[in-house]
């Protein structure tokens, strides 16, 4: 059975804890929800939640947490030296963001998407991003282009430094910045969910591979947007997503198909 991240309207539960309803669609801030403090900005509770959120997110993006793995509140609280209440808040947020699956009365799990789940997500990204490119190509002002240029430079430095998790995050942020320039809150909310899922698929099934081409391709895309080369920009973005999808699907398919010859080799070893 595949486990896929819940849509925005979900109910979270873990151990014997009551169900936690999702917040309205907003772009969450690691320090936005007070966990144990007095609600004041920068309180101890907020700092704890931010630390827990960063630790679990990094483990997900580094591929250290495998598909279908359960994340138990008690174990996480002990490992991260915090309360179960802090862990519960963070798991609920990660579920809302599409980075974890929250199953009522069972708890939180690392997503285990089916091949069709992966295809559907990448298809949605292609439709969204090509539509945005068509609407903004040649229409961005100097300030917007400068933002994209600066981000590509940051991506290039991260790749040069070999910081894998940060490179994945920055690659996703480039697309979010690009979509944000369409100036639509609804598109932004949908894009955050899609990018979070594809970042996670990359980490789960392609954790050891860098997207070395990303800064170069993003720089080329910005140049095409600047020059109004709409079809070229759409083709580049589509090819980039196609390549990522193919690599993730190949590894996900291999993970889904057990090697029965290897599994049962020992049982028949004496008959040779």
UniProtKB/TrEMBL annotation:
Domain HTH gntR-type: 46-113
SUPFAM superfamilies: GntR ligand-binding domain-like (SSF48008), Winged helix' DNA-binding domain (SSF46785)
InterPro entries per UniProt: GntR_C, TF_FadR/GntR_C, Tscrpt_reg_HTH_GntR, WH-like_DNA-bd_sf, WH_DNA-bd_sf
Pfam families in UniProt: FCD, GntR
Keyword Ligase in annotation: no
This protein's UniProt keywords: DNA-binding, Transcription, Transcription regulation
Gene3D superfamilies attached to this UniProt entry: GntR ligand-binding domain-like (1.20.120.530), Winged helix-like DNA-binding domain superfamily/Winged helix DNA-binding domain (1.10.10.10)
Location of region: Disordered: 1-30
GO molecular function, one term: DNA binding
Family matches, as PANTHER family: HTH-TYPE TRANSCRIPTIONAL REPRESSOR NANR, TRANSCRIPTIONAL REGULATOR, GNTR FAMILY
Protein name: GntR family transcriptional regulator
Organism from which the protein derives: Pandoraea commovens
Lineage, top ranks: Bacteria, Pseudomonadati, Pseudomonadota, Betaproteobacteria, Burkholderiales
